[in-house]
Each structure stands twice: as structure tokens, then as C-alpha cells.
Amino acid sequence: MKRQYFILCLLIFFSISFNVLGQEKVFVIDKLEFKEVDRWYSGYIRRAFEKAEEENASLIILELDTPGGAVSDALNIKNILLDSEIPTVVFINKNAISAGALIALSAQNIYMADGSLIGAVTPVLMTGEGIKKADEKTVSAMRAAMRSAAEANGYNANIAEAMVDENIVLTKKDDGINLDNKTLLTLTSEEAIELGISSGAAKNISDILKLQDIKDAEIINIRENKYDTLTRFMLNPAFLSIILALGLFSLYLEIRTPGFAIPGAVAVICFGIYFIAQFSVGGFTWIAPAIFALGILLLLLEIFVIPGFGIAGIFGIISIIAGLLLAFDISNIETALTVVLSSVIVTTVLIVASLSFLPKSSVFKKIALADDTSTYHSSVSYEHILDRVCKTSTLLRPAGIIEIDGKRYDAISDGGFIDKDIEVKVILVQGNKIVVKKV
Length: 439
Prior knowledge:
Elements: H1 2-21, E1 24-29, H2 39-54, E2 59-66, H3 71-83, E3 88-97, H4 99-105, E4 109-112, E5 117-119, E6 124-127, E7 130-133, H5 136-153, H6 157-162, H7 172-175, E8 186-188, H8 189-194, E9 200-201, H9 205-211, E10 217-222, H10 226-234, H11 237-256, H12 262-279, H13 287-304, H14 311-326, H15 333-357, H16 362-367, E11 389-392, E12 399-404, E13 407-413, E14 423-430, E15 433-438
């Protein structure tokens, strides 16, 4: 009797274990209400798919509601879906317009909620005169992307192309719908089902699981968390432009003033935020920050060690700009150029303003190692100290202070650093500018 009871317990234990271990995992990427397709969304989808692969999911359901967005980021998401070894489903819960239609067709199955739409994929550009259709080259590339996605998953490729180009003609006989050469195709949920674009209607995820014949599964929902919200804010082009401009301006202040002080720390923090934001998207390499750091090093070498402005300075500036641009994916080069160019403009304005207002500030005078007003007279000519030999009162890096006959003067070295209490000779006087050379 005891033996039979023991065997029964073992059978129950193994049965429960088998059910738990054999239970399917379905990853559901929850809907983001009317979310525009951008770099952040592309990275968000990539991370969700990577997590699903780590957890050995049996199905990924992407709940979609988007008005469209950047073509480059939609193409990235298209590749993520097509390259996935896990079966994929897109649940269109209201809108898959423009870039959203490309994402939907990249899934193996499409289900649509009542009242949902798919289509209107023509690429457009923002111009000074408003929104205009993109050039034929861009339209042709989008047609090819839609056709390839449709063919990969068994959808009607002609219908897919008709969503991009109003010149595509469809017939009831060949395609199931009549469409002239003046109308861009957009389908309702009922029309999409009738034409084989949608696999069926669904009100929620439970309906999709039934349609997929999945009866017992562990549902793992992917939702936007605090980290996602933070990275979404950090990837905003306006924020990136401001943080980059602040970093460049702080770098200028640090170069102009001796010592590693507040401006230098601010610059490091700003550049760190800029590159960390790019890192959050995924697919990031250390090449961009390495090139940027090399550019900073070359620029500092040119300013503090090598007299004049030559090859090191030129390559330094090129490396800085290249590093900032390369931090973006090559497909987002237009956004990268906008961010970098706008930040350079803002930095230039800040530098011009600082030249006009900051020298009058008592705080800036202290930072710049300016002498107190009792010993410093900007309107006095300094011709009388030309060729004088004196000692440095502070480190010249390359700016600092020298002392002649008990008076202190702002001076700069002719190249490189000069330590404190070193004998120097005044070799040039131009107005208030005093240049010295180590004896």
C-alpha cells in the first residue's frame, strides 16, 4: 500500500513538473498609445526581443498603435522582426499608419482590433512650404521594403506597394480590390481580413492566443518603465542639442581658464550624458566616444603644447565632430547633423555673449585668475615692461599672472606650461596682451 502511495506521489510530482517546464512563454510588448516610430522606439523593441530570446519565448506579440515616424527606425524594427527566430505577431490596436504598416507586414501574422487601420505609407519630408512627398528615390526604397516584408511573410506584395505609391493599380480579379492610379491604399480591419493582410479580428491578447491555438501559456508583458522614460527624454533631439551645447561651452571655458575646475567637470558630465543616451538605443560601439576623446586630446595638445594652430588642431576639431556624428546610427545621419549643427550654433552664441558679459563679472575674474582692481589697470599701456625679466606668480597654463616691480599682470606663455616662480621674459606687448617666454 505504501509503495503504491509513493508511486502515485511521484507521478503527480512529475506531471506537475512537466506542465510547469513545458509551459509556453508568450512575450507581449504592450501598446504605447499613438507612439511615433523613432530611435527610442527602435531600441525599446530591440531590447524586448533580446529579452524574449534569453527567456526562450515561444511567441512575441507586438501591440501596435502608431501614426508612423522615421523610415530609418521603421526599417530597423522591420529587420528585428524578420530576423527573429521566435514567431511574431503584430496586434494592430487602432493604427498602423505609414511606418507602422511596414512594421506590421514584417510579422508572420497580423491581427486587428475593430476600427483599426493599416496603410498610407508614402514617405514625406518637412519643407519650408509644409509637408511634401519625398523624392522618387526614397519612395522607391520604401516600395521595395514593403514588398520584401510582404513576400517574406506571404502577404500580397501588390497591396503592400499600393500603400506606398498611389500610381499602383489594383484589380478585383488579381488583387481582390479595385484601386485606380490616383489613390493611396489604406485598409480597415475588415478589408485587411478580406484581402489576406490580417489573419483575423481580435479584441485583446486573449483572443490572439485562442486564434494561435495557445491554451496554456505564461504571459510576460513588456511595459515602459522608469529607465525607458528617462532614455526617451535623453534621446530627444532638442535635449541632445542643449546638453551638447552646454558641454562644448564648458569645454571652451575650461580651456580659457587654468586648472580643472567646475567648467571641466560640467563638460565631462554633459558629454557623458550625450554618449550614454546613444548607448541606450542599442547597437552602440566605443568607436564614437574614442574618436571624440582623441579629438579633445589633439585640441588640448595644440592649445597648450604646440604653438600656433596647425595639423593637431585641425584633426582635433574633425575628430570631435566625427565622434559626435558617429554616436548616431548611420541611418540617422540627418538627425545627427541637426543636433550637432544646432549645438554648434548655440555654443557660438554663448561664446560671443561670454566675451561681452563674463569679463565684467567678479566671479569670472576670479576663475580667470584676474588680479584685484587695486593692482590691475586695463587702460594703462604696458609698453614699459617689454623685454623685462620677471618671475611667474602663478602657473601659466598658458594664462596666468606675472609680477614686475611689485605689480601683478595677466600674461600668457608663448607655448606650453610654465610653472610658478620661474624666470620669464616679456617678448610681446599688444594693448593689454602680454606674452612671455621662459628664460
